[in-house]
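Throughout this chapter, every protein is written as a compact record of paired, labelled lines. An example of such a record is reproduced below:
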Amino acid sequence: MFSFLRWSSGSAALLSVTMAVSAIAPVGISAPVVAQTTSPSPSAGTEANFSDVAPDFWAKPFIQALAQRNIITGFPNGTFRPQQPVQRAEFAAMIAKAFDQNQVRQLTESGFTDVPNDYWAASEIQEAYKTGFMVGYGSTLFFPEQPISRAQAITALANGLRLSPNGTPANILRSYYKDAGWIPAYAINPITAATQANIVVNYPNLQTLSPLQNLTRAEAAALLYQALVKQGKIEPLANNVAAANYIVGRNDNVSQSSSTTTSTSNNGSSTSTTTSMTSTTEPGDIYALSTLNFTTLSSALKTAGLADTLKGKGPYTVFAPTDAAFAALPKETLNKLLQPQNRETLTKILKYHVVSGELTSNQLKRGELETLEQRPVNIQINPGSNQIAVNDASVTQPNIQATNGVIHAINEVLIPPDINLNQLQ
């Protein structure tokens, strides 16, 4: 049976910083185009209408309520961009506006070396760190312009609000989420606590957490709203509001201000509540897992005829590009790769991401590693941070356990050296 404790010592070290992010290269520090810094702020209590947030948009109640309170803002052109990923600096700015928590730690005198004093969110990042919401990468880096994942964002809120789980986290998470096996080790306790506190909002499927996916601006609004409900600073959504249907655990026997979920047994004793949702206790094979959080990769594997291979006995190690990694390719290039006439090229590219044998993060060694494409990838390991790179891609989430191997999520699509994407038909 799959265990949440099946994380190697190497991965534990890699993930011990909670908000660890995905790149080892220096991050640019120019001011990003984010609403928290570039948009005029609506006055508290005013109606906040964004041209790209329809009246029936699932997150509109969350967005509108926080915009009216000047916790989140739109863009100068009147849009909100609800599906745009949230950067770490932007989430820190949202946290700084939403909460007034006491400081629990001090930042070193040198601070974060990739956040200069004149960076647009420097003070907000410092506040998010000092109040316990977010931490850096190692002791010196913050990576402000990297997207923040849903797991990282929920963990930040749980930590900042000092939430603790009640009960056995692994069992609780499996009872709520069909993709519980994807939750990183560092996030297990915080996500359990946040779930019990009704902070987690999952759209469109209440049982799908998608912990590794980048947090969108709409999702950020929903999580922040629920965190403020937990603090008693905002009223819970009314039951007849459609958005309330996506709040995890809302229909359990728990109030919106409670961080625990309880029910009463026949003998009157209080026991931990579990839901009747179907849960997944086994991780599934590599292809099955790809259909949950690597949807573009899953589609590509099926197109290339490799789905059955990664359903097989294996074992395999897969460096899996995230959906965002595929989206970074030129749209025309990705469309061409999925055409029948380019199937051979697509197959070569995908096999370049697969290694025979199961290699967890602590088993990966610096140097070349042969792939199923019979061409090696170059593994680099940063000794200071334990960050792993594959060619020019960074491992954003290691050791996703499958029944027939292991997946390491990466932030770029690997292209074999003999493939020229400009020659696609």
In short: The beta strands are 262-264, 270-272, 316-321, 354-356, 367-370, 376-381, 388-390, 393-402, 405-410. The chain has 14 helices and nine strands. The radius of gyration is 22 Å.
